[in-house]
Amino acid sequence: MSGAVRISRFVFSFMTALVALTSLPALAGVVFFDTTAAMRSAAGYPISNRTSVTWAYANRSAEAVCAMYGYARGMYTGEQAGELMGVHCLTHDSVVWMDVPGGDIRRWAWWQDGVTNLDQQGAFYAQAAASAECGNRGYGTGFLTGFQNGSADFMGLNCIPRDGVQYAGARTDDTRFTGLSPNYNPRYAPWWSLRSVSNQVCQYYGYETGVMWTFANSGTYPVLSLGFICFS
Prior knowledge:
By secondary structure, the chain is of the alpha+beta class. It is built from six helices and nine strands.
């Protein structure tokens, strides 16, 4: 990074994306590329518009797209330009996947009481609970895969090693980040907004991506202080 904030990376042509996909995954870390509607459909989880799907469906779709191209896990960036949607794929040696009992996720205060179906859970609450559970297991942060075994009550969880993360913060009135505003509230923000803001903040600090894991009152109503955990 040269100090500039990357708001959107949809400057690559489709051919550039294809060239990137034909290359072998990097030794470790996070890899970005654009996905087309055809790629998402081929992975089994089509998305035409980011606003039409839940965070859990989007995570399942990103996982499937990344797996299709040899990566371990992934998350969409939250950005969309036409049919193109950016995705961050994680290489196999940069993330740890596990199935965890649903009760382990639901025990965290961030989780909305009474919600058992992932697709019905708020995007921020699900992310905050996943990050807390990964931290409890000795990792730096993490995110839910979006996959759930309802009968056995298990949820897929991706955790990022502690030595690969960095904490960052921003206030909702920080004008450096176009996704924020003084009235921005994670409780009600759609999944794609949370992902976009997380990328904006983490990329400002020199990391490829990250997750929003907490927020608190700033002392100036209605401005909030947001907490992020970033990784590359």
